[in-house]
Amino acid sequence: MNNMITLQHTKIKVSFETSTHVVGHVFKVTLYKKLLGMVSRYALNQIAAEFERVSYVGIDSSRCGCVMRTTHGLPCACELARYVVGSIPLGVIHMF
């Protein structure tokens, strides 16, 4: 039993180390430059999904709904529209 738990623990550690060092292709653009290494992969994936909404939401907060901002503390599509040219500053991410 102990060997099985040790093996599972080792696999979890290896998986975690890989996820912290491997940067996804999506996040190699300038937009995420200030967030890499400072924000969790889950948060980066949520921001990337929300960034896809920018094309049809734009800066209109009434169309956006600002759900990501209120539920996760992450920038919503109408906020991300301001950072299309530059990169997302770390200050817009709410630290829970």
Q: What is the overall silhouette? A: elongated
Give the end-to-end Cα distance, rounded to a whole number of Å.
37 Å
Helices and strands: which structural class? Answer: mainly alpha
- Integer-rounded radius of gyration: 17 Å
Task: Report the order of strands and helices.
Answer: HHHHHH
Give the count of helical stretches. 6
Q: Give the strand tally.
A: 0
Question: pLDDT below 50 for ≥5 consecutive residues: which ranges?
Answer: none
Strand share of the residues? under 5%
Helix content: 40-55%
The largest sheet, given as strand count, sense and whether it forms a barrel, is: none
What oligomerization state is this entry in? Answer: single chain
Overall average residue pLDDT: 81
Short description:
It contains six helices and no strands.
List the helices and strands and how they pair.
Layout: H1 2-21, H2 41-51, H3 54-57, H4 61-64, H5 67-72, H6 77-80
Q: What features would you describe in this structure?
A:
The protein has six helices and no strands. With 96 residues, the protein is mostly helical. The longest helix has 20 residues.
